[in-house]
Amino acid sequence: MTFPVIGVVGGGQLARMMAPAATALGFELRVLAEGEDVSAVSAVPNAPVGDYKDLAALMEFSKGLDVMTFDHEHVPGDHLYALIEAGVNVQPGPDALVNAQDKLVMREAIDRLELPNPEWAAVDDVAGLVSFGDRIGWPVVLKTPRGGYDGKGVRIVGSAEEAAETADWFEAMSPLLAEAKVEFSRELSALVARTPDGASRAWPVVHTIQVDGVCDEVIAPAQNISLEVAAAAEEAALRIANELGVTGVMAVEMFETPGSGAGFLINELAMRPHNTGHWTQDGSVTSQFEQHLRAVLNLPLGATDVLGQVAVMKNFLGGDNQDLFSAFPAALAAEPAAKVHCYGKSVRPGRKIGHVNLVGASAGDVDSLRQRATVVANIIRDGRLPAAASGTTEETP
Ligand SMILES: Nc1ncnc2c1ncn2[C@@H]1O[C@H](COP(=O)(O)OP(=O)(O)OP(=O)(O)O)[C@@H](O)[C@H]1O
Ligand SMILES: [Mg+2]
C-alpha cells in the first residue's frame, strides 16, 4: 500500500468526522483514543487506547504513521518536540500549536502581527485584575490561558468587588488573561487551511452564535457583512496561518465591532477542524475534514466554494432524550433536506452530541433554514415533535 496513514491524537467527534474523508480518498486513519467509548472509536477500526499526556503512548502510536495530527490542542508541547526529534511528522507543529494552547501566547502573537486584539493583560492576582479593570473599565473578562473549552475557563467580572471572588482561579493558575469585555454585534469565524509548503485557502467568513459559551448555530457566509471586514478578517486568518507556521485547518474566532478599528477583534485560535466549520461537510466543495487531511499531508488543497448560496449548521446538545435514534423518524420526516450528523456519544445534559446542516439556494432562505434546522435538532434532542407542530398535525382534519 502506498496510500498514507494519518494518526489523529484524540478520539472526539472531530477525529470521527475525518473518517469519511479518509475513506473516500483511500487513506488510512488511526486514532489514539482516550477510552473504548469515545466518539471516533466506532468509526475508525484502528483506534488504540492511550494517554495523550504519556510520551511513551504517543511514541508507540506514531509507529507507521505518515503524519500525526490532532483532535484537540492538549498534547504537551514537550512531547511534540520529542516526537519530532524521533523523526515523527507532526502537523501542526508545537511552535504553531502553542498559540492555540495558551491564550496569553496567542495574545502576544496577535499583538506582534499588529492584528486587532481586545485590550488585554496578563494578571498575576486579584490586585492585578482590579488594576486592569480600573484602568480599562468594568466589566472585564477573565480567562484561564490553558485548558479551557466551550466557555469553561471564561468568566465575566463585573466590578472590583466581584474580582475578590476570583481568588480561587489564581490559586489554580497564574498568570491569567484579563480582557476588555467586547461590545460586539456578532461573533465571526474565519476558517482557513495551510500546508507545510505554505499553500493556503480560506472559506468565507461565517457568523457564529454562542449560547452559554457553546457554539450553537453557524450561518455561512455571514450575512450582510461589510465586504471590507470580510476581506480583512480572511486576510488576517491567512496571515496568522502563514506567520505562525500553522498547518492543517485553523479557525480564528472573532468579534465583529462595526464602526470601530478594523471592524473586528480576534478572540482565539483553534488549530484543527472546528465547530464553526461543520457546515462545510454539506455546504462547501471541500469539507474542513477533507481539507485538514490534505493539508497535513502537504497535498493540493480543495476548492472552498459554498454549494448553494447559504448554509446553516445547528448543534444539538444532550437533553432529555437518551435514545436519539427513536427521534429519527420524526426528525427526518420533518425536513428531508436536512443532513444529520451524530457523534455516537452517550447523552449527557449540555454535551455536544450532533449537528444538523441545511444548505439553501438563495440568501433569502437563511431565516427559513435556521428555523428548519432548529426544528430537526430539537426533535432529536427532546425525542419528540415540538408541542405546536404535533398539535397542528393532530388537529388537521
Ligand atoms: N473579551 C470578550 N468579550 C466579550 N465576550 C467574550 C470575550 N471573550 C470571550 N467571550 C465570550 O465567551 C465565549 C467563549 O470564550 P473563548 O472562546 O475565549 O473560550 P473557550 O472556552 O476557549 O472557547 P471555545 O468554546 O471556543 O472552546 C466567546 O465565544 C464569547 O461569546
Ligand atoms: Mg472560543
Automatic annotation (TrEMBL):
<comment type="function">
    <text>Catalyzes the ATP-dependent conversion of 5-aminoimidazole ribonucleotide (AIR) and HCO(3)- to N5-carboxyaminoimidazole ribonucleotide (N5-CAIR).</text>
</comment>
<feature type="binding site">
    <location>
        <position position="103"/>
    </location>
    <ligand>
        <name>ATP</name>
    </ligand>
</feature>
<protein>
    <recommendedName>
        <fullName>N5-carboxyaminoimidazole ribonucleotide synthase</fullName>
        <ecNumber>6.3.4.18</ecNumber>
    </recommendedName>
</protein>
<dbReference type="InterPro" id="IPR003135">
    <property type="entry name" value="ATP-grasp_carboxylate-amine"/>
</dbReference>
<dbReference type="InterPro" id="IPR011054">
    <property type="entry name" value="Rudment_hybrid_motif"/>
</dbReference>
<comment type="subunit">
    <text>Homodimer.</text>
</comment>
<dbReference type="InterPro" id="IPR013815">
    <property type="entry name" value="ATP_grasp_subdomain_1"/>
</dbReference>
<dbReference type="InterPro" id="IPR011761">
    <property type="entry name" value="ATP-grasp"/>
</dbReference>
<dbReference type="GO" id="GO:0006189">
    <property type="term" value="P:'de novo' IMP biosynthetic process"/>
</dbReference>
<dbReference type="InterPro" id="IPR005875">
    <property type="entry name" value="PurK"/>
</dbReference>
<dbReference type="Pfam" id="PF02222">
    <property type="entry name" value="ATP-grasp"/>
</dbReference>
<dbReference type="GO" id="GO:0005829">
    <property type="term" value="C:cytosol"/>
</dbReference>
<feature type="binding site">
    <location>
        <begin position="179"/>
        <end position="182"/>
    </location>
    <ligand>
        <name>ATP</name>
    </ligand>
</feature>
<dbReference type="Pfam" id="PF17769">
    <property type="entry name" value="PurK_C"/>
</dbReference>
<dbReference type="GO" id="GO:0005524">
    <property type="term" value="F:ATP binding"/>
</dbReference>
<keyword id="KW-0067">ATP-binding</keyword>
<feature type="domain" description="ATP-grasp">
    <location>
        <begin position="107"/>
        <end position="297"/>
    </location>
</feature>
<dbReference type="GO" id="GO:0046872">
    <property type="term" value="F:metal ion binding"/>
</dbReference>
<dbReference type="InterPro" id="IPR040686">
    <property type="entry name" value="PurK_C"/>
</dbReference>
<keyword id="KW-0547">Nucleotide-binding</keyword>
<dbReference type="GO" id="GO:0004638">
    <property type="term" value="F:phosphoribosylaminoimidazole carboxylase activity"/>
</dbReference>
<comment type="function">
    <text>Catalyzes the ATP-dependent conversion of 5-aminoimidazole ribonucleotide (AIR) and HCO(3)(-) to N5-carboxyaminoimidazole ribonucleotide (N5-CAIR).</text>
</comment>
<feature type="binding site">
    <location>
        <begin position="267"/>
        <end position="268"/>
    </location>
    <ligand>
        <name>ATP</name>
    </ligand>
</feature>
<dbReference type="InterPro" id="IPR054350">
    <property type="entry name" value="PurT/PurK_preATP-grasp"/>
</dbReference>
<dbReference type="InterPro" id="IPR016185">
    <property type="entry name" value="PreATP-grasp_dom_sf"/>
</dbReference>
<dbReference type="Pfam" id="PF22660">
    <property type="entry name" value="RS_preATP-grasp-like"/>
</dbReference>
<comment type="pathway">
    <text>Purine metabolism; IMP biosynthesis via de novo pathway; 5-amino-1-(5-phospho-D-ribosyl)imidazole-4-carboxylate from 5-amino-1-(5-phospho-D-ribosyl)imidazole (N5-CAIR route): step 1/2.</text>
</comment>
<feature type="binding site">
    <location>
        <position position="143"/>
    </location>
    <ligand>
        <name>ATP</name>
    </ligand>
</feature>
<feature type="binding site">
    <location>
        <position position="187"/>
    </location>
    <ligand>
        <name>ATP</name>
    </ligand>
</feature>
<comment type="similarity">
    <text>Belongs to the PurK/PurT family.</text>
</comment>
<dbReference type="GO" id="GO:0034028">
    <property type="term" value="F:5-(carboxyamino)imidazole ribonucleotide synthase activity"/>
</dbReference>
<keyword id="KW-0436">Ligase</keyword>
<keyword id="KW-0658">Purine biosynthesis</keyword>
